[in-house]
Specification:
The protein is α+β, with helices and mostly antiparallel strands and 343 residues long. The chain has four domains: 53 residues, EF-hand (Recoverin, domain 1, Orthogonal Bundle); 111 residues, no CATH class; 70 residues, Recoverin, domain 1 (Orthogonal Bundle); 49 residues, Recoverin, domain 1 (Orthogonal Bundle). The protein is built from 14 helices and 13 strands. Strands 5-6-7-11-10 form a five-stranded mixed beta sheet, with no helix packed on it. A two-stranded antiparallel sheet has the order 1-2. Strand 6 and strand 7 form a beta hairpin. Helix 5 packs antiparallel against helix 8. It is flat. The N terminus is likely disordered.
Length: 343
């Protein structure tokens, strides 16, 4: 679809084998005049795709015609790679570079940002089971060692009180030989098995952040607005000014949707954050020349004049667009031009 709606059915899983279910979802979501059919304006398809579905050529798609919606070529196809990445592999990528949504998709850190109608969609991979299982393992082992003491093992009666509440539920599962005693070796083996189960599944989590201006301005998704992000704010939101008024209103701000794919349930350790569970921690930059990464002390993806350690004249030479900061592209061009052996 080429547009998103504010209804609860704006995003749903599509199973080509269940065309009737998909047709009902589309009618529920998009049928504004409630006539049991969808016009091209209601469904938002281009003419070629619409005509392919409109078998009776009456200018509307009925339920039977909508059952074949999933047979259309997707406007956008994306991949999220989980686990260890290869040397030239990115965490997220656009598969069909020639698709109509490809030009609307931009790289943001290790994720993708797609501006689609009245919605802005962020796609990234989450920590998932790797982080969660690490946290659980440490919690279980600390409690085990506290209860076991010098004995090196615990019995079921040891975890029936308040002190063993984390271990009580898994005790009969982790006690693989059924002798009524749980050793640290058995506990580790059980946690290893749980970790493998966790990474054997992929989970897509969707968070609707509403019409938030903060998320649109936070270009590197670190939960903070840097001086550079504030200075370049209009460049990121001016596309919403469709009438060329020179300003935007609250109604122009799109819905912010965040999609994360992870091994198992995503890491939601930041639930107390006002921006929700998908706030990225502030980490040191991993791209660009080493001097660029070292100078970018606030990890916002650019080196400001305050962070720059050279002279003002050198800063101006590197800052080729004169916006008062050195971004990754400028740093890499400068580094390549000044590298020994470069003419």
């Amino acid at each position: 679809m080429n547009k998103m709606t504010r209804s609860s059915g704006a995003i749903f899983s599509v199973d080509p084998a269940q065309g009737a279910v998909l047709a009902r979802q589309l009618l529920t979501t998009c049928d504004k005049d409630k006539n049991g059919k969808l016009s091209r304006e209601e469904i938002g398809l281009d003419k070629k795709a619409f005509d392919k579905l409109d078998a009776d050529q009456d200018g509307e798609l009925n339920a039977d015609e909508l059952t074949k919606f999933a047979s259309l070529t997707p406007d956008g196809e994306y991949i999220v790679r989980l686990g260890t990445l290869g040397d030239r592999e990115a965490a997220t990528d656009v598969i069909n570079a020639d698709g109509p949504l490809a030009p609307m998709t931009k790289k943001v850190n290790d994720g993708l940002a797609l501006s689609l109608g009245n919605a802005q969609i962020d796609l990234s991979r989450g920590d998932g089971a790797t982080i969660n299982s690490l946290f659980n393992r440490q919690t279980f082992l600390q409690q085990f060692r506290f209860i076991a003491g010098e004995k090196g093992m615990i019995e079921k009666k040891d975890v029936q009180g308040g002190n063993g509440r984390f271990l009580a539920g898994l005790f009969p599962l982790a006690d693989r030989d059924g002798d009524g005693k749980l050793t640290e070796k058995e506990l580790n083996e059980f946690l290893d098995m749980q970790a493998k189960i966790g990474v054997s599944q992929a989970v897509l989590t969707i968070a609707d952040q509403g019409r938030g201006l903060f998320d649109a301005l936070d270009a590197n998704r670190d939960g903070r607005l840097s001086f550079h992000e504030l200075r370049s704010a209009w460049d990121r939101v001016k596309s919403w000014d469709r009438d060329g008024r020179g300003f935007i209103t609250r109604d122009d701000i799109p819905t912010q949707l965040q999609l994360k794919v992870s091994h198992g349930p995503p890491n939601v350790g930041n639930l107390g954050n006002s921006r929700g569970p998908f706030t990225n921690p502030v980490t040191a930059p991993t791209k660009g020349p080493m001097w660029f990464r070292k100078m970018d002390r606030n990890a916002d993806g650019v080196v400001s004049a305050r962070e720059w350690l050279g002279t003002a004249e050198e800063f101006k030479r590197v800052d080729t667009n004169g916006d008062g900061s050195i971004d990754l592209d400028e740093a890499e061009r400068y580094d390549a031009a000044t590298r020994p052996g470069t003419k």
